[in-house]
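Structure request: Trypsin-like serine peptidase, Streptomyces anandii.
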Amino acid sequence: MKRTSGTSSHAGHGRPRAGTRHYALFSALVLLAATSASVAAADDGPGPLGVTSVAEKTTQSARVGVLVGSDKTGDLTDNHFCTASVVHGQNHNLIVTAAHCLSGDTDLVFAPGYRDGKAPYGLWRVKRRFMPDNWSKDQDEDSDLAFGVIEPQDGKGIEDAVGANRFRPGTSTGATAVTVTGYPDSRDEPITCTNKPQSHSRTQQRIDCPEFTAGTSGSPWINGDGQVVGVLGGHEEGGLTPDTSYSVVLGTEAAELYKDAAADP
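Returned structure:
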């Protein structure tokens, strides 16, 4: 079960929506039970690790949203297919997601803080995409990371509207717990889970969090300092089971890609 929704041809991959809808009947019961549990703080504070719940409406969750084809914005409920989040850039116009979410030539928009079919902070057009050469040439899973440059609105960038997290490559896997927030394509509200990542390989890291099904590709992994230290994707485009997710290790390639994207006007 790859983490990109099969309802869109943007990435050309993914599990069919019918399977996701069927699975959601079970997962909704699990999430309802977990909602009342306090999720552990990303600095290993008190609370259960590895518990998935509905994300509360906060300034932090407002920075996470969904990607939608520009021709599908009339019905966000049935057409969001990946997750992305706002990261700081010198022009206040940057989102980060998985490379397989931005592959293809379809025009895309980003809806931060999306819930219940509505985009409370507006719809923002993705005007440019930055992907590593190794992904563009060979779809190398170790390069499954991308940035989108967002077109400003009324002279203001998306970061001015919802704030941004810092993108932090070079952080050791498992240095702290992280919080993963994303949108399954079968739900119209974000889910979130905190746990401590583990090394999968020299170039990939993994985290055990239940219910991260299709649509959660691109979900940010955020540490207690508000830094993005992983992005759901990489190995098997994020993983073939809903309870274990992957990210590329954010190293030199990620740092160079971010530098180029962050400087784009």
